[in-house]
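Database export, one record per block. Field names are fixed; values are copied verbatim from the stored entry.
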Amino acid sequence: MICGALFFPERATASTPVLAWEGARRLGVQCLVDPDRTPDRRRLQAALCDRVRRLAADKAPIPVVLLAPGDPGLIAADTAVLLFHANLQPGEAPDGPLLVFSLRVFRATAAPSGLFGAAPRATALPAPGTSSNPRFDAAVNAALAETLPWRSRPAP
């Protein structure tokens, strides 16, 4: 029996928590859509940020709030910050330009525990006047699953 355990160890199901979450009492969301030449960039940025906040808040054990640039919450000791960075790539795609984005967690008061966040993703830009579409939501949810501990999926 012991020999079998040496050759066929069971998968570990627990993992070490990421230090960025230790003591966090809220998650702030801040977004940046580049470049400035994007039409209606600020409106798009606000709409996308609100949608990312809503998706991140799903089943969150802590409050999830929007943080504006310069908000003191960005460096508050009890706040982890989800950074959503997006760029519009003009193209000939059937749905118009692509929205390329990445998500990363930042915590000013924690030792850096992860320099990278979720893998960058590309999706169709939500239709004008909306902040979402099913493909955008799916891409953001996949990135959140790689970023937020309450959204991560256990390894098979």
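Remark 1: Residues 21-147 form one domain.
Remark 2: The chain has three helices and five strands.
End of record.
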